[in-house]
Amino acid sequence: MTPVDRNLRAVTAADDWTASSWRARTALQLPRYPDQAALEGALRELRALPPLVTSWEILALKQQLAEAQEGRRFVLQGGDCAESFDACSSELISNRLKVLLQMSLVLVHGLRKPVVRVGRFAGQYAKPRSTDTETIDGVTLPSYRGDMVNGAAFDAQVRTPDPRRMIKAHARSAMTMNFVRALIDGGFADLHHPEYWDLNWVGHSPLADEYRRMVDAIGDAVRFMETLSGEELHNLNRVDFYTSHEALLLPYEESMSRRVPRHQGWFNLSTHFPWIGMRTAAVDGAHVEYFRGIRNPIAVKVGPSAGADQLLRLMDVLNPDDEPGRLTFIHRMGAANIADKLPALLNAVRRDGRRVLWICDPMHGNTESTANGYKTRRFDNIGSELQQAFDLHAAAGTRLGGAHLELTGEDVTECLGGARELTEVDLERAYHSTVDPRLNYEQALEVAMLVVRKHSQLTSAV
Ligand code: PEP
Ligand code: CO
Asked: How many Å lie between the centroid of ligand 2 and the Cα of residue 303?
């Protein structure tokens, strides 16, 4: 069977599902649009716009995720906590791509297996919030829910959910995709030229030597293979990039759900790999209902309050055919909780025997506030959660198949620690995130190196 055939095997198409059946369920975290006619108009317009990705790319990713489930690939998923309309610029996009490419190079070299690269971009514009409203100096306004819903400025008009923002989010996502595709087609990701990915400001990075050595070793290997085979290795001059976002704003996701010729079922064509956030993962909730009927590979964030029962029920509902590559659980427990919470979940799923891909998000369980009022994360906690995840999977007989990170290619100071030992005072220098703190370029590369070190420790121990 060819790889695509495997993905085309019959899956049960739920006959009680439609792209709008989620509307009969409890939908958390959705904005209230004051103008229903404007909302309907925006959704009609979206339904007529072209998709951002194709069904065959989606199925190719599902195949790669199936291989990751079997330990033949490692998934690197990363990008901003929230994209913003203002940050849709050539430099920011290419810098983010550079970091992800450099990290994947480190991972490919160190893990000796192909890496599936998935960006948190081209659609990561809607955010869950802990409260519906925010009060400042006695004034209460709707919370900021991401650029595709409302604006961040504390102003009554800006904070009012505006459905036209969905059209703008679609356009910004398309521009981002277009630029990423053009860069990759143009040879930006060519393994013969990893120097294209260098970022100017890191010339004196404490990590530079280790990274250079790795790049040189890969260059030698490429030249050696080409000498042996007598020709250029063409598949090295382009790599695949897939997109993902939290599919939180269901009216938008519904309008991007389409049928396509020659493939059965419905696809969400706004992204390759949508995920359900921790706050909207109730088995009988609207988000799970929507995700049940689309054929994309999908992920669910799993936090410290999730029980083994919930995971098994999610598997029943979201992957009744135990389809390879279909379902990923992204655990995000926090360094202090993971040893306590994760083993029971791993054991229950292993005993059940159905397949899932496990990915660790070491960011969202490790958020804290500093005395000077910044939301931050400590590099040591991020590293610790990841390393514990590797150990806990090894102990449970399951496999950690990837890492999910919030990062940027910019020289931001949002997370503490790392090779340059950023302190609370540094946070004042370059804190740009409107939502969660991201790893900067160096810290992100350091996480990739840490994954490699941990992996080799575990494999040399057996
Ligand atoms: C996120 O990924 O930005 C997020 C909100 O995560 P979680 O649902 O895990 O809290
Ligand atoms: Co976040």
From this structure: 13
Q: 69, 401 in Cβ contact below 8 A?
A: yes
Give tens-digit pLDDT for 25-48.
Answer: 999 999 999 999 999 999 999 999
Q: How far is the C-alpha of 248 from the C-alpha of 424, rounded, in Å?
A: 32
In whole angstroms, give the CA distance from residue 255 to residue 115: 31
**Separation between Cα atoms, residue 299 and residue 327, nearest integer Å:** 6
Count of residues for the chain?
462
Rg of the chain taking only CA atoms, in angstroms: 22
Q: Whose CA is nearest to atom 4 of ligand 1?
A: 277
* pLDDT, position 186: 81
Residue type, 199: L
**Minimum mean pLDDT range among 95-99, 126-130, 174-178, 248-252:** 95-99
Is-above-0.85 flag for pTM? Answer: yes
- Longest pairwise C-alpha distance within the chain: 73
Reported in sequence order, the residue ranges of 80-200 that DSSP labels E, i.e. its strands, are 115-120, 133-136, 139-142
Q: Which of 219-223, 435-439, 448-452 has the lowest mean pLDDT?
A: 219-223
412 with 444: CB under 8 angstroms? no
Distance 277 CA to ligand 1 centre (A): 5
Token readout for 235 is: 């598949």
Q: Which of 332, 422, 443 is nearest to 374 (CA)?
A: 422
d(CA 441, CA 326): 31
- Spatial contact of 414 and 406, defined as CB atoms under 8 Å apart: no
Q: From the alpha carbon of 361, which atom of ligand 1 is closest?
A: 9
**How far apart are the C-alpha atoms of 289 and 247, rounded to whole Å?**
12
